[in-house]
Amino acid sequence: MSASRTARERVRAELIHEITETARRHLATDGATGLSLRAVARELGMVSSAIYRYFPSRDDLLTALITDGYNAVGEVVERADAECRPGDHGARWLAVCRAIREWAVAHPHEYALIYGSPVPGYEAPQDTVPAALRDTIVFARIVTEAHEAGELDPPAGLPPAPASIEADLARGRAAVTMNVPDDVAARALMAWAGLYGTVSFELFGQFETVVENRIGYFDHTVTTLGRLIGFRF
Amino acid sequence: MSASRTARERVRAELIHEITETARRHLATDGATGLSLRAVARELGMVSSAIYRYFPSRDDLLTALITDGYNAVGEVVERADAECRPGDHGARWLAVCRAIREWAVAHPHEYALIYGSPVPGYEAPQDTVPAALRDTIVFARIVTEAHEAGELDPPAGLPPAPASIEADLARGRAAVTMNVPDDVAARALMAWAGLYGTVSFELFGQFETVVENRIGYFDHTVTTLGRLIGFRF
DNA sequence: ATTCGTCAAGAGCAGCGCTCTCGAAACAGT
DNA sequence: ACTGTTTCGAGAGCGCTGCTCTTGACGAAT
């Protein structure tokens, strides 16, 4: 615990940071499949085997990038929410949705890495979970606060949440501390999946040659999804 | 154009079929990134360079698998729709949604290949488009017929489609021959994205440790999305 | 019977992830 | 200040990948 020991650990931390930073740049240009340990090492002026002192495998490097990606979108979402008037829940929902889409459009390969198809043998390490929940927690807070303020006013005629998914909804609410009735929680979960489904469709080319006014269509979609939850606009 | 020439062409077509078939099996077990030309060749008892007589590159093989995947889900959807009573549009929507999910769960890697993040330098070849539209056309037909039968009864209080996306909706309707008003088309497009967003969330692990009753949650979701379009259940 | 197109095979290139060994440097304890 | 230990980068090397090029054999058409 002496100063000298922390000196070595500090240069180690710095090198880890440099590696992930370089890897993230490569990821942004070449995508996850094109990320090469050797190329990263080459750019850093070291030999490929040296990387293994810091990341035991290529997948571990990818895991680090995944965690960073979740944190990046989480931070963007948190800031977008913070910039809104707390009482205007509809505006907060809209701001959060737009922030996610804008980050995804700006970082398509990172988005694909965390919300696309799992890359290798797809065993998501458990330590990515907290970072993965950051955006969801913001979202849950908006819904909870809107509900507690009595501002949620969903359209009539939608089916109620069936009893068979009560346990799931309870588990989901507990994970993100969302204190709302089952019906609200179910619709919130749906809107959440719909939001990411829309972003993924746009980024992964499913809207190609169809939707051109991406922002206009996206805004209309998330407004409708927001109405589904019960936000007023 | 003699018989002998077609004989040669026939063995060629058979070999192409064998290659794609073997490749699909490898894809199903190892995923797209694990698909190796050399492994396919090895299993077929030929040398790797021989494959290049039939597929000019690995990406071309993947493209063939993508087209096959689109056709597979298209066929499943068409059959699911055909087995319903034509007048029961809500049941048809539900059947189509369930068919898509079941196919995706049964063929996760193929689903990831066509609806997940684009694999390489992601330039979707234009000749996959017709196959990609097969399921969408079925879906559009259900919506159109329900609308023409006056059976669509969407919840009140949802925002109307803004004028800014009129052109996009017109283009989308033309692509799949869906003759309905803008509001209906917009909501149908949203439900469509929401459906695939839900399936992707389940397959790509976003529901991990949260939703366990996958079928129950999925049914509730697509029922709600169906209500959004205006189907009655 | 000869010509010509098609094909499988083999060698080979550059790149990849990953492992192992080795010598140098930085650390810790005396 | 001198040990012994740990940490680290470099290098060689293994087996794999996609892909190219050349060679020789076979079959169909002239």
TrEMBL record, chains A, B:
Entry-linked InterPro entries: Homeodomain-like_sf (IPR009057), HTH-type_TetR-like_transc_reg (IPR050109), HTH_TetR (IPR001647), MT1864/Rv1816-like_C (IPR025996), Tet_transcr_reg_TetR-rel_C_sf (IPR036271)
Pfam families: TetR_C_33 (PF13305), TetR_N (PF00440)
HTH tetR-type domain residues: 13-73
Keywords: DNA-binding, Transcription, Transcription regulation
DNA-binding region (UniProt annotation): 36-55
Keyword Transcription (UniProt): yes
PANTHER family hit by this protein: HTH-TYPE TRANSCRIPTIONAL REGULATOR RUTR, HTH-TYPE TRANSCRIPTIONAL REGULATOR RV1816
Record protein name field: TetR/AcrR family transcriptional regulator
Natural source organism: Actinomadura fulvescens
Lineage, opening ranks: Bacteria, Bacillati, Actinomycetota, Actinomycetes, Streptosporangiales
